[in-house]
Amino acid sequence: MRRLKFFIAAFSALALFLFLGGNFSPVSASATGAKEYYIGGMTAGFMLSAEGTEIIGLSEVSSEDGIRRPAQDAGIRIGDTIVAADGIRIKTISDLNAALERSGGKPVRLIIRRKGETAETEVTPVKDRKTGKYKIGVLIRDTLAGIGTVTYIRKDDYRFGALGHGVCDENKNPLGIADAKVFLCSVIGVNKGMRGKAGELRGLFLNDTSIGTAECVRDTGLYGTFDKTYDFSHAELVEIAPMSEATIGKAIIYSTVDGTCPQKYEICIAKVDEDNRENKNFVIKVTDEHLLAETGGIVQGMSGSPIVQNGKLIGAVTHVYCIIWTPAMAVRYF
Predict the structure, then answer these.
(1) 225 vs 331, more confident
(2) Model confidence at 196, in pLDDT bands (50, 70, 90)?
(3) pLDDT surpassing 70 at residue 320
(4) Do residues 2 and 314 touch, judged by C-beta distance below 8 A?
């Protein structure tokens, strides 16, 4: 099992929207008909890819000729992502390692993504005196991991939606699927939120409990197919309410803030904005005293928590900003 944390810029009252639809295309809840959906609320772990090897540190290389700094000399910076080497796509640490070894110490043309733009640079790998491997003096990662909340599972085909928002790294680079499996997570603690500082759930991947397969991540969330063997005996079935039925007043969110079992918590919808172009359709306020005592409100990791009003699913907790995922264990020097 891996311990991880999930970082997010959040408010105690968040905007929310529900995204559903065949082939994982987000559509308005009003177009879903009378299909039934299992309410989510369980915490799940996801592995995402930076679509390249991200530079998270620069280092020196000890060669036979002394200390060298190939990456730094080539103008490579922390936060850059290497996406190609000599015209070959770089997606993983292994890809970059192979490219450096193929070079034999000759210059390598790298395509770098920096703040959404791409540029080309040339770097000359140096043979490390101790290992005999060619290196350029960077600390990199290719995979990021985090936890979020499953919103719904469609009863007829087990398609699910989670998170309710897009995902990016610290440099605001969008992330794609790295590992198709979605794992159940056990929440083992909570750092409470307070004024000016978002709290967070602390959880463990239960690597022996795969609950689904991720298929795509979009601005509206993460989508995939749930495992049919999952125990739905305690899951509630609901229909989707059209946006016109959402009203200011009491509602319920389903979240997991301890262990693996979702619980109901009272909230109040303080604002409804059906026509908001940024999908900030509601603003909510947590009123449940137990949840406030446990978490201080909405915290990191609760994004995707389903919202039910008058017995129908009307939305999911989300927010405006990009989500920042912590790095997984795949970090090495090159």
Answers:
(1) 225
(2) low
(3) no
(4) no
Whole-number Cα distances in Å, 2 to 168, 184, 211, 240, 323: 21, 12, 16, 35, 20
pLDDT digit string (tens) for 283-294? 888 899 999 888
Label residues 222-259 b or e (16+ Cβ within 10 Å = b). bbbbbbeebeeeebbebebbebeebeeeebbbbbbbee
pTM for the complete prediction?
A: 0.70
Helix or strand (DSSP H, E) at 102: helix 93-103
Instruction: For 15-53, give one letter per residue: b (16+ CB within 10 A) or e.
Output: bbbbbbbeebebebbeebeeeebbbbbbbbbbbbbbbbb
CB 328 within 8 A of CB 30: no
A 10 A CB-CB count for 8 gives: 26
CB 55 within 8 A of CB 79: yes
**Domains, the chain, ordered by start:** 3-49+143-327 (2.40.10), 60-136 (2.30.42.10)
Structure tokens at 108: 């390598």
Tally the C-alpha atoms within 13 A of residue 123's C-alpha that lie toward its C-beta.
29
119 pLDDT exceeds 50? yes
CA distance 297 to 294: 8
- 247: three-class secondary structure by DSSP: coil
Q: Provide the token pair at 259.
A: 């262990």
Q: What pLDDT band is residue 278 in, cutting at 50, 70 and 90?
A: low
Q: Which amino acid is at 311?
A: G
Tell me how long the chain is: 334
* Structure-model confidence comparison of residues 18 and 89, the more confident one: 89
Where does 155-281 show beta strands of DSSP type E?
A: 159-162, 176-191, 200-218, 221-226, 237-239, 249-255, 263-272
Burial label, 220 (beta-carbon count in 10 A; 0-12, 13-18, 19+): buried
pLDDT at 277: 64
CB 152 within 8 A of CB 211: no
